[in-house]
Structures are given as C-alpha cells and as structure tokens.
Amino acid sequence: MQFTSETVESLVDQFARLPGIGRKTARRLAAFVLKLPKSEVEQMARALIAVKEKVIFCSVCFNVTDNDPCPICASTKRNHDIICVVEEPNDVMAIERTNGFNGVYHVLGGAISPLDGIGPEDLRIRELIARVNGKGQDAGAFESSIPKEVILAVNPSVEGDTTAYYISQLVSPFGVKVTRLAQGISIGSDLEFTDEATLTRALEARVPV
Fold first, then answer.
1. Domain 6-54 carries which CATH code?
2. CA angle at residue 72 from 69 to 75, to 5 degrees?
3. Does the structure show a pLDDT above 70 at 192?
4. Which CATH code fits 57-208?
C-alpha cells in the first residue's frame, strides 16, 4: 500500500535507501515526519545539510570531525603512544563508550575484502605506517610522535583477520608492539553493536598478533 501523495512516497523512497530500513519502516518514518511541526522538519533538514557541508575527516586519524585535527588527536590528555586501529568511525564511538581507553585512533575506512574489490590501497594503511614511523601528520605535535603500541581493533571476521595480519606484517618491523582485541567478541559481529562490558574485557585482554 502506498500513500496517495507522490511527495510523501518520494520521502519514503529516500528513507528506504538508509541501511536497515525497509519499506514498512520507511513509511512509518514518513508518517512521523508528516505529524511534525514545520519548524522541527526544517531543523532536521538543516542538520542533514550541515553534515555534508561541515563534517570533514581528521587529517591525523581520519575520524569524522568538525575541526582538524579532531578533539581526540588534539588532546594533550590522551596517550599518543598507543594507536587503536579501527575500521569505521562508529567503532571509535563504541570504544569511547567503554571509558576504558585513553589512547588515540586510526580509522582505516573499511577492511580488506578482495570479493568486494577492496584492497590495502583502498584503505588508510599508508597513513597508518607514516604515523608508526614518525612521518605522519601528528609528527612533531607531541613529544613522542612514534607510538609504542598499535592495537588492531578490527572486527572479528574473515576481512578483519586479513586486515589485521596484513597490517601486523607492515608494522612489526618498526619495533612497535602490535596487539589485537581478545576474542571475547563474537565472530561475525560488529564493534558498533558490542556491549561496553565485552569491549572493555577485550581491550584489557588484548594479545600479541
């Protein structure tokens, strides 16, 4: 069943493009928008436009931010000797929710997946190596620009395992300690949907690669 308004159906089409949103949910969202005051809809529209106009990637860690470098990379209270490597910005938020990590991050932008046509050159691995050998964007910003440890907090999947192995082979020759989250996270799950307690235990029990 469709709305009798082509304008509303067009909105349904846009909502249905979002990940995890089917047509039924998209229609409920459209119906919700119809009930909202015009001022709230305009506020929502401005927020969507602002995301595309103002949000950038941090030149150091490549997390999303409004200012470059991002607040985490710019903080003198964070431990810049430890870099936690994650696949996506959502993973940074997941780890930050645990309040159990005080280092900095590096967002790869995905994982190596030959079946999907994603190779190492498609990720921000070169930039990570530059940070490890002291030639990255953060070099000179802090007393110790070469990290002592790299935590591979990639998802526990075939793609994550491939990515972790590939990076460990590149980082280890620099004499940097390379660890990976303990396998307390279910195989095939995403960090974004892992509870704080499990993530905290995995961080604390990380093991050498």
1. 1.10.8.420
2. 90
3. yes
4. 3.40.1360.10
The Cα 18–Cα 78 span in angstroms is: 34
Instruction: Tell me how crowded residue 49 is: count the other CB atoms within 10 A of its CB.
Output: 10
Structural domain boundaries of the chain? 6-54, 57-208
Query: Using CA atoms, how far apart are residues 111 and 138, in angstroms rounded to an integer?
Result: 23
pLDDT tens digits, one per residue of 25-51: 999 999 999 999 999 999 999 999 999
Per-residue pLDDT of 99-141, as tens digits, reads 999 999 999 999 999 999 999 999 999 999 999 998 766 655 5
Pull the structure tokens for residue 41.
């809809």
Preceding omega of 114 cis (within 30 degrees of 0):
no
Q: What is the pLDDT of residue 136?
A: 67
Tell me what pLDDT residue 142 has. Answer: 55
Residue 138's contacts (CB-CB under 8 Å, 6 or more residues apart) are 60, 69, 73, 80, 104, 131, 145
In 3D, which of 38, 61, 66, 63 has the Cα closest to residue 51?
66
What are the angstrom distances between the C-alpha of 17 and each of 51, 85, 174?
17, 29, 44
